[in-house]
Amino acid sequence: MAATDGISSRGEAKSSAVIKAEEVRSSLEQEFPSFVKSLVRSHVASCFWMGLPVTFCKSHLPDKDTTITLEDESGKEYKMKYIAYKTGLSAGWRQFSAVHKLQEGDVVVFQLVEPTKFKVI
């Protein structure tokens, strides 16, 4: 997430950050599905909309709007709104991205550890 955790792409070539995130993802427990997300401007500025991969959402997340929990590396949890038909996170995502100082170009790993809970690395 932030530059101190080694996954951020700030100061690195974007492809290098994605490769690093994929390596982290591949080291995670395989029983829990996960994906890598490269952040763009709309994820971290202005509209603060976090679109998730459609195929991941259709396979692993509820087909109705619900509350999703994101847990950061320190164990702190953040609640936000998952909008099923748009396959994305809304209300609450802005706070998460601000607290973690996420910026355009950062790369994060989402690991689904419960039906509506992700660990974010």
TrEMBL record:
UniProt xrefs under PANTHER family: B3 DOMAIN-CONTAINING PROTEIN OS01G0234100-LIKE ISOFORM X1, B3 DOMAIN-CONTAINING PROTEIN OS11G0197600-RELATED
- This protein's UniProt keywords: DNA-binding, Nucleus, Transcription, Transcription regulation
Species this protein is from: Lupinus angustifolius (Narrow-leaved blue lupine)
Note the SMART domains from the entry: B3 (SM01019)
Q: Which Gene3D superfamilies does this chain map to?
A: DNA-binding pseudobarrel domain
Write the protein's name.
TF-B3 domain-containing protein
Any keyword Transcription? yes
Main location group? nucleus
InterPro entries per record: B3_DNA-bd, DNA-bd_pseudobarrel_sf, REM16-like
GO cellular component, alphabetical, reads: nucleus
Give the signal peptide as a residue range, or say none if absent: none
Note the Pfam families from the entry.
B3 (PF02362)
Task: Give the location in the cell.
Answer: Nucleus
Task: Specify the TF-B3 domain's residue ranges.
Answer: 35-121
Q: Indicate whether Signal appears among the record's keywords.
A: no
Query: What CDD domains has UniProt attached to this entry?
Result: B3_DNA (cd10017)
Gene Ontology MF term list: DNA binding
